Each structure stands twice: as structure tokens, then as C-alpha cells.
Amino acid sequence: MQGSYTMTLIKLKTATLVGLVTLGLSALEASASDSVTGKCHLDFALTKMLHPATPEFLEDIRNRSGSASVRVEKPGENYTQEFRDDRLRVIVDKNNIMQRYLCG
N or C: which end of the chain has fewer CB within 10 A? Predict the structure, then answer.
């Protein structure tokens, strides 16, 4: 009886461990696929906030953010409210100097 109980307990622990490992691997796979699809993330350090929004600079921060696209938003212009997780939005002033950036 004791041996049967021990075997059942071992099988239960093994099944639990296999389930947890499978969940962990699934999370890693999802995380890897997110970076492949070009989702925007803001975990990069930007040292020059008040920088002219030149094409070269915009391409550099787009690459560092992992975004598929970048949209420069100028004062007085209208933009869609559609949220896109693959887009980096750069807010500039009237002199085309970057004021802030965000995903969307």
C-alpha cells in the first residue's frame, strides 16, 4: 500500500513538473515571436531627448525600439487614434525637435 501511494505521488509530481516546463517553454516561444513581429518596446535608453527628428535618427530609434514603423506627430496635425503595437510614435515641436516618444 505504501509503495502504491509513493508511486502515485511521484507520478503526480512528474506530471506537474512537465506541465510547468511546458508552460515556461510556451512563454519563451511567445516572447521570441513577439520580437520577430516588430512589436514596439521602450526599454532602450535614449540619451538625447531634444534631438532633431532627422530620418537617420528616427531609423535608429525605430530599430532600437523593435518597431516595424515610426510616425512623427507634429503640432496642429490630426492623427488616427488607432493603437498599433508595432509602431513607434515620435512627438516633435514646431521646429521638428523630438519632445517624447511612445508606442502605439
Answer: N
